[in-house]
């Protein structure tokens, strides 16, 4: 999704902004731009925009800066990566947008819902629009109401906007000032030594400072290189606490891997270790998740759980449903987060709502959280990004500690989400009907997770070889049952999003209710069939597939000879309990999807049309 960055300081602002935009590339975008303020008040803003990648923008900016007629640049600039919503990904539609007089530039994330009304009013006043975007109105509105005070003009403009924004504004008339505002789209301030940054995402700031302040909705901040002042929209001063980020720059670099996705697949043993660290209590036969802020008597009252999430996080949530029902005996629903609002679910007094989101910024999940708040539910967040909007709005929950996930395709977040959900199921289970003995059986298995993950990663070469055989396919099915059903949904999602192979995940029993009609020798079926209660039935489903000549790629327990006669290829995972099997199975699927995408020449870390955090509904 769109990314914004602003810089005020002594460094070359254009360079800082370009490197910040590169850090934001992972979010997914299709055009980029930068506006730099001249050191001399009243000199024109330098505006450079390009369709395509930041490298293209950088090249064009280089040419502009070589031009001797350009003004002396200041240490103040803003930049934007745009993920097209209103209007195609063209240079004209790229941000920043200028006001008609060229004095004001804005970079905007979010959607201005009343832009057509505002646009028509401004057009009647003689303003001419260059882009098809909803955002351009903001720049013209600022010009329209400006009377010498930039902050006042921005405030007045914000008062006219309906919709969401993470916004940064600069003006050629105020060469020392950046103004930013937040409503529904994240904005974070980075506090450096003699420099202040603004961004939509901490990865754009982290190479400059680890000290950050998150804005809340309704905050407006006026920034110079040495200070920042936050106020409400009514200009009342607001105080927000600064926090230290515990990620470091190495974590958001590729570290010798060809792609972030592969690096993040390889990080899973460590990520799982970090997720589990200090949270398993063998002596007390429980899990310690203090962020939940619910004592035993609160937990004991929970008699229904609703999980709201999207995409990969939703599939982790489906595993969570099985865990909560098996170990805590608590009926659990998993709802696609947008559907949570659309279908108006019932939250009862002792219902708990769990919002799962790696980024903590997914608009649909956030909307579900807000609806849950309105319904009076006890809400918990399960997020990876510390300080993210969902983490803050839920106020209680559990962090994954998986480390930054940069690749658009989610990998380590899924496995850590499942690990945390398993710990939650133990904690809840122990306040319901789970015995200490059963809890310790689960806990012991959870301590094996890093080793299970590593055992699959060690087979990368073998999986890459198998992918060579399937790299030409255009369609695939993934099937599994029980705990492996969500795992195959996730496997199909991974394959389709990065390799563009059309892939469908089904419960193994469902194939014969329709989809089997599609099977041919050219449509492989990837079957999750490790040792589990449903294995015999899944083998029967494999036979049904092979009878239709569909090649079968089994993901099975190492050394399980039952599978050989029913499959064309086998990826082995280590022997493990059924409830943790989604973790090694999904890692095998991640590696398969990765190598399929690599062999098909796809852009793995930034698949077409996709964004890392989907901040529009
Ligand atoms: C798939 C993927 C998406 C996300 C989904 C939710 O690889 O990354 O399906 O899982 O957009 O994102 P979060 O977890 O950030 O809410």
Automatic annotation (TrEMBL):
Query: What general EC class does the enzyme of this chain belong to?
Result: transferase
Location in the cell: Cytoplasm
Q: Which key words are in the record?
A: Aminotransferase, Cytoplasm, Glutamine amidotransferase, Repeat, Transferase
Active-site positions on this chain: 2 (nucleophile), 612 (for fru-6p isomerization activity)
One Gene Ontology MF term: glutamine-fructose-6-phosphate transaminase (isomerizing) activity
Catalytic reaction list = D-fructose 6-phosphate + L-glutamine = D-glucosamine 6-phosphate + L-glutamate
According to the entry, every stretch annotated as the SIS domain falls at 295-435, 466-607
Keyword Cytoplasm (UniProt) = yes
Its EC number(s):
2.6.1.16
Residue ranges of the Glutamine amidotransferase type-2 domain?
2-226
Q: Is Phosphoprotein among the key words of this record?
A: no
Q: Which NCBIfam families match?
A: glmS, PRK00331.1
Q: What does this protein do?
A: Catalyzes the first step in hexosamine metabolism, converting fructose-6P into glucosamine-6P using glutamine as a nitrogen source.
Assembly, in brief, is: Homodimer.
Q: What is this protein called?
A: Glutamine--fructose-6-phosphate aminotransferase [isomerizing]
- Organism, per UniProt? Candidatus Litorirhabdus singularis
Taxonomic path: Bacteria, Pseudomonadati, Pseudomonadota, Gammaproteobacteria, Cellvibrionales
């Amino acid at each position: 999704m769109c990314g914004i960055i602003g810089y005020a300081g002594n460094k070359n602002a254009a360079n800082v902004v370009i490197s910040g935009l590169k850090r934001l590339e992972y979010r997914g975008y299709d055009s980029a731009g930068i506006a730099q303020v001249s050191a001399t008040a009243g000199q024109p803003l330098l505006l450079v925009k390009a369709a395509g990648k930041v490298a293209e923008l950088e090249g064009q900016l280089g040419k502009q800066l070589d031009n001797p007629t350009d003004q002396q640049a200041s240490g103040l600039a803003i930049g934007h990566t745009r993920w097209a919503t209103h209007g195609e990904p063209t240079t004209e539609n790229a941000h920043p947008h200028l006001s008609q007089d060229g004095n004001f530039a804005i970079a905007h994330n979010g959607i201005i819902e009343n832009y057509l009304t505002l646009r028509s009013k401004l057009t009647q006043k003689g303003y001419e629009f260059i882009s098809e975007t909803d955002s351009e109105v903001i720049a013209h509105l600022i010009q329209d109401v400006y009377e010498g005070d930039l902050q006042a003009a921005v405030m007045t403009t914000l008062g006219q906007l309906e919709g969401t924004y993470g916004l940064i504004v600069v003006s050629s008339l105020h060469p020392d000032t950046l103004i930013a505002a937040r409503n529904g789209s994240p904005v974070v301030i980075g506090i450096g030594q003699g420099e202040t940054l603004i961004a939509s995402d901490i990865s754009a700031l982290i190479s400059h400072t680890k000290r950050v302040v998150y804005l809340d909705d309704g905050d407006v901040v006026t920034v110079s290189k040495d200070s920042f002042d936050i106020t409400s929209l009514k200009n009342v001063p607001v105080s927000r606490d600064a926090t230290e980020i515990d990620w470091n720059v190495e974590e958001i670099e590729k570290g010798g891997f060809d792609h972030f996705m592969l690096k993040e697949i390889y990080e899973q043993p460590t990520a799982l270790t970090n997720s589990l660290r200090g949270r398993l209590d063998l002596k007390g036969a429980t899990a310690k998740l203090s962020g939940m802020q619910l004592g035993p008597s609160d937990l004991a009252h929970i008699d229904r759980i609703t999980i709201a999430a999207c995409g990969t996080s939703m599939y982790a949530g489906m595993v969570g449903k099985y865990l909560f029902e098996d170990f805590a005996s608590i009926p659990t629903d998993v709802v696609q987060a947008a559907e949570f609002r659309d279908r108006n679910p019932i939250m009862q007094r002792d219902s708990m709502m769990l919002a799962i989101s790696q980024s903590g910024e997914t608009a649909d999940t956030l909307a579900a959280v807000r609806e849950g708040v309105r319904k009076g539910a006890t809400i918990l967040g399960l997020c990876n990004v510390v300080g993210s909007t969902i983490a803050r709005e839920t106020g209680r929950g559990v962090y994954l500690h998986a480390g930054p996930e940069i690749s658009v395709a989610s990998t380590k977040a899924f496995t850590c989400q499942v690990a945390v959900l398993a710990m939650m199921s133990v904690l809840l289970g122990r306040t319901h009907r789970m015995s200490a003995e059963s809890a310790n059986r689960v806990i012991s298995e959870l301590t094996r997770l890093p080793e299970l993950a590593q055992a699959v990663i060690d087979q990368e070469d073998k999986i890459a070889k198998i992918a060579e055989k399937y790299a030409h396919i255009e369609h695939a099915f993934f099937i599994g049952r029980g705990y492996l059903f969500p795992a195959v949904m996730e496997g199909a999602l991974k394959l389709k999003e990065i390799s563009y192979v059309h892939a469908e995940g089904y419960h193994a029993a469902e194939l014969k209710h329709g989809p089997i009609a599609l099977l041919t020798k050219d449509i492989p079926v990837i079957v999750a069939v490790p040792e589990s209660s449903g294995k015999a039935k899944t083998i029967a489903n494999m036979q049904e597939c092979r009878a239709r000549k569909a090649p079968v790629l089994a993901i099975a327990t190492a050394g399980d000879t039952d599978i050989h006669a029913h499959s064309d290829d086998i990826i082995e995972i280590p022997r493990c309990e059924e409830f943790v099997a989604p973790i090694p199975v999904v890692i095998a699927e991640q590696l398969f999807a990765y190598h399929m995408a690599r062999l098909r020449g796809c852009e793995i870390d930034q698949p077409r049309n996709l964004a890392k955090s989907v901040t529009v509904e």
